[in-house]
Amino acid sequence: MFERVRPRNLEDFEEPRMVPLGGHLFGACFFLMKLLPARFMLKRAVERGQLAPGGTICESSSGTFALALAMLSVLNGYRLLIVGDWALDRNLRRRLLQLGAELDIVEEPHPIGGFQLARLERLQEHLRRRPGSYWPAQYYNEDNPISYSKVAACFIDAVGPIDCLVGTVGSGGSMCGTARYLRMLFPDLTVIGVDTHNSVLFGQPNAPRKVSGLGGGIVPANVDHTQFDEIHWLPASEIMASAHDLHGRHGLFMGPTSGAAFRVARWWSDSNPGKTVVAIFPDEGHRYADTVYDEAWLESSIPGWNGTRMEEPTAVSSPTVDMTSWAKYPWRRRNLSDVLGDLPPRI
Amino acid sequence: MSAKSGIGKAMAHHGELLQGVFDHIDGYLRRGLVSLPYPALTSLATFTPNARAEITVSPTGREKARRAADLTIASFAQVRTGGHIQLVSDIPIGRGMGSSTADVLASIQAVLDYLRVFPTAEHIMRIAVDAETACDSTLFKQQAVLFAQRDGIVLEVFRKPLPALNILSVDTTPESTVSTVEFEPARYCPAEIEMFRPLRSLLRKAIDSGDVRSLGRVATASAVINERFLPKPGLRELQAIASRYDAAGLQVAHSGTMAGLIFDPEDDRAPENMHLARKAIDALGLVSAPLKLERA
């Protein structure tokens, strides 16, 4: 009844290394966090009969989820089609191709849902054309948040009882899944979601964003808004500067979403001494060597990125206000509709 | 080999601190539990050999204890012998307090005492599982263990025994009993199976550091996850009382009717809170009794 269906494969790469960052703040440093939900979703799909040996996987992603799927597809003999957009940079593109994935790059954004929705529409065409292919659907698949039990266990193994969890929100899987598991044991856990300006996830009006990996133009079903006590929005400049701080002060070479989580977690930890805080750092920095860690690129893309950092966030009265700097809002574990009044289109 | 009789003694438990499914090092998921031993209630067995061909038991009907004695003779006796097992137990039946397992373990140990053989705890547990289908972890006294009750194997040995606990014991349905054998084992869904990972991690931390508060959190979460398989009337009300009077948590018998509010003996306000919680439980129309469980 409980037989495991596959050997460990890359499972040893799924768990974070827990790094103390001073005070009672710990960074959960992942090599590639998405390996965990990707492996779990594929395993469940095999168990349900949705994914046959040698089958085809189709997914929309411009980031690390695509990379995780490609690595697992190589190991397990699946074919993989990735629908991506501009955010799928040259290096990642090359890696995906070397891993045998087929790529379809969407050039034009959807007039309302942006690139994310345009990618999903293109994906539907591919799924129609290839009957029997499997769509992991990380935005909707319940197995995405469910897979994070191992991460919650890992946090407890390393630091014991936890008072506060901080991390960026994209698909909603890591933050909402981990928060749900931790709250079974620590009902008073403070959960802080980190988003970026112009992302609709927590109510900002949709507009072009400068950082990928957090936020988005559509609200994934896996974002369980009722998990969050507080939401922060960071501008690209703060995110980049913070990634550099994490590297320069703690020796941790991580991606921009890690920088975003670190910025907010450091501030909360300093404001709440004695509380045990865990910040999720989802991937390493190598992928961003030519961007986030290239100062020439930064100067041209995000002028003034390394200027003065804000001491603390500005409290905003509504998530919908126009934001130019680091902002925070007391979400208080409410639904999106309870916070915003009228429910915006949820796709 | 002398013709004298042998004696064995085994203790009750007050349900479990944790019960679910867990990874084993062999890569398979196993059902497992951590019992909450209750040494004040015991089953005492006396084995007296005789010239008959088979083993008999009294009180009559304790078939699993008889089978356990028979299996022990078959495993360890150089010369097959008949005999009689006399059981004296003060453990209530059908409450999920391990009355049947205690009879089985006491009987095995009575035969072993007569034979003067001393196998490992795990060997004894395997005979008990053969006789009874499922078993508990009360035999392990030096260190707490996560025990696979249907396989008779230890999944994890914790570094220490359970810390001392004060329990407010409640029978949630005094008028009905649960048969452990007829009770269908919980069929956990994939999401529930995953929930046991963080519970196991916190349990390990709690036992290793003697942290009653964390132990209580694990027990409460286990009770809540398992509630759909064997609902306990009034569990929500008991949970509310537990949090109102600052109990560390709430544990249940996962195959019985018992529940317990866990209090930390080190907490100066616990006696007062237990007193108030008892009054609140009285008001629910249920009877409670305070138990002191010493560190093993």
UniProtKB/TrEMBL annotation, chain A:
GO terms for biological process: alpha-amino acid metabolic process. InterPro entries: Cys_Synth/Cystath_Beta-Synth, TrpB-like_PALP, TrpB-like_PALP_sf. Its cofactor is pyridoxal 5'-phosphate. Pfam families: PALP. Keywords: Pyridoxal phosphate. Residues 34-283 form the Tryptophan synthase beta chain-like PALP domain. This is Cysteine synthase A.
UniProtKB/TrEMBL annotation, chain B:
Residues 204-269 form the GHMP kinase C-terminal domain. It holds the Pfam family GHMP_kinases_C. Keywords: Kinase, Transferase. The lineage of its organism: Bacteria, Pseudomonadati, Pseudomonadota, Alphaproteobacteria, Hyphomicrobiales. GO terms for molecular function: ATP binding; kinase activity. This is Threonine kinase. Residues 67-133 form the GHMP kinase N-terminal domain. It comes from Xaviernesmea oryzae.
